[in-house]
Structures are given as C-alpha cells and as structure tokens.
Specification:
Layout lengths: L4 H7 L3 E5 L3 H9 L5 E3 L1 H9 L9 H14 L4 E4 L7 H13 L4 E5 L18 H14 L6 E6 L2 H4 L1 H13 L4 E4 L5 H11 L3 E4 L11 H6 L4 E4 L2 H20 L12 H8 L1 H19 L3
Parallel strand pairs: 1-2, 1-8, 2-3, 3-4, 4-5, 5-6, 6-7, 7-8
Helix pairs in contact: 2-4, 5-6, 8-9
Length: 294
C-alpha cells in the first residue's frame, strides 16, 4: 500500500478522502476501503482540545494526533495546516515536521492569521503575493517531491471566481501541487479551477456549509480529483454520543441504545486484540516453562 497521495489520486477518480479524528477512526476508515485519510484542523481543535476552529491550536497540537494516526494506519494522510502557523521560517518547520512524521500532504490556506471557518462569514484573505511566499517557503522546505503541497484558497466567497482563479494560477506557478477550492457553490466553478490551473482540484464536501453535497459522478464530470469529507464521521459519532448519554441519564439504563453500539468483538477485530493476546499468552507460557523446576 502506497503512502503517497499522488499515487492514490491516480487510483480513484475522484479520490475519496475521509476525515479521522483519532487513531481508531483511521483504522475504521482503512477497513472501510478508503485509500486516503484527512486530519482536520477543526477536528483537532474540537475533538482533542474542546476548542473552536479559530486558530487556537498549532503545530505541536496537530502533530500529536498525526503521530497517533500514523502509528496505526498506512494510508496517505492529508493534514490541515491552517495558514502554516507563522512566517516563512515557521512554515518551513511545519513542512519538515509533517514530512518527518510520515504525512503525505498538507494544505496551507490564504486566510489571515486570525482565521475563521471557511464556510462562515467574517473571514479575510491575505494578498496573493503573501500566499505565494507561504507556498514557496513550504516547497523549499520539503525533502521529497512526493510530499504534496496543496494551496487552499478562501477567496471565492470574497473576490469572486475570476480573481480567485488568477490567485490559484499564481499559487501553482509558485509551486503548489494541488488546489483546495473552499466554499465552492457550483460544479462549473470546479471545472474552471481544473481547466485554468492544470493541477488536481480538491472539493471540500463538509456538511452544513456553502458547498452542496455533490455526488462522486457529478464531481468526476466536473474534473474534480479529490472529494473530501472532513468531519462526516465525527459529526455522526458526536450525535450518537449525545443520544447515548441522554438515554443513560434520563432512563437510568443503556438497554435501549445498546443496538447503536459497536460490539466488543467488532472492536477487538478492528484493533487486532486477539493477536496481541496470543503473543502475551506465548510469552507467559515460555516464561512458565523456563521457571518450572526440572
């Protein structure tokens, strides 16, 4: 199995990339047959720290989750690196640390440092030249050309399609390997991004945002290379947890929600529990044999 996102993009058109909030979710995504996974900045902030996605977490926080995920999952991992967490030297460190951790790709966005959710009002973007400096710093820092540098643009909602296309062309000219077009509302816009930039385009299909829930067939026809579902599983997990907590609290029993739960055997199958247990039993048996008087 390749850990290269470039290779994964070639195997599936468009490549479906699902967000995972922790190591176990990564195992589940791999078992479901996905060929690539994603670590969302919003997911790290909310699931790991109980914070909103407002730039309150940084490189060290995200790397903690990266290391846990890469320890158990071989799939190519795309990581949300917000604005790169600082100036050129900080962006360079971000890329080196992500590459060292086994990450396949990162995306860096053109919002100002005080970033907002890409589907909510109030966001602002930097000048194209500043974003190009971010990209150049990232490209110069990587050691392996297979490490994908993706430029995310939030300009569409602020500047319109033509200005955003001009930005993206500059981003590609300065080394971006792919474009993450945020808050796209029309399939035709994806086609324009693809035709004008000549690099793979990622569609962010986050729920409850500005982008409709386009199908894979629709995205394929629009020349989209990657379809991202950043927090779909996490949102479902969160709703299930609320339901279970409420039922236990209100009724005094979990009997009515057991049907919603993954069984112990299913959990053990996913994490390879029996193999760990077998090795422990072998070690205990060997030790007992060595300690038995003859």
């Amino acid at each position: 199995m390749s850990s290269n996102l470039h290779d994964a993009v070639k195997t599936e058109k468009p490549l479906q990339i699902v967000g995972v909030i922790n190591a176990y979710a990564a195992i589940q995504a791999q078992n479901a047959g996905f060929r690539a996974i994603y670590l969302s900045g919003s997911g790290v902030a909310t699931a790991s720290y109980g914070l909103p996605d407002l730039g309150l977490t940084g490189l060290t926080d995200v790397l903690a989750d990266v290391h846990r995920i890469k320890a158990v999952c071989e799939l190519p991992l795309l990581v949300d690196c917000d604005t790169g967490w600082g100036a050129a030297s900080s962006i360079a460190r971000t890329v080196r640390e992500m590459e060292r951790a086994g990450v396949a790709a990162v995306h860096i966005e053109d919002q100002v440092q005080e970033k907002r959710c890409g589907h909510l009002p109030g966001k602002l973007v930097v000048e194209a030249a500043e974003m190009c400096d971010r990209i150049k710093a990232a490209v110069d820092a990587r050691n392996n050309d297979d490490f994908m540098i993706m430029a995310r643009t939030d300009a569409l909602a602020l500047e319109g399609i033509q200005s955003t296309l001009d930005r993206c062309n500059e981003y590609v000219e300065n080394g971006a390997d792919a474009i993450f077009a945020e808050a796209v509302t029309d399939l035709h816009q994806y086609r324009e991004f693809a035709s004008r930039t000549g690099v793979p385009i990622l569609a962010n299909l986050t729920e409850f945002g500005k982008t409709p829930q386009f199908t894979i067939d629709e995205l394929r026809d629009a020349k989209v290379a990657m379809a991202l579902y950043p927090l779909s599983a996490f949102r479902a997990m969160s709703r299930a947890a609320e339901t279970v907590f409420a039922e236990i609290r209100e009724s005094g029993s979990q009997k009515e929600v057991v049907r919603m739960m993954q069984t112990r055997d299913e959990l053990y199958e996913n994490i390879g529990y029996r193999e760990y247990e077998r090795k422990i039993n072998e070690m205990v048996a060997t030790r007992d044999q060595l300690e038995t008087p003859r």
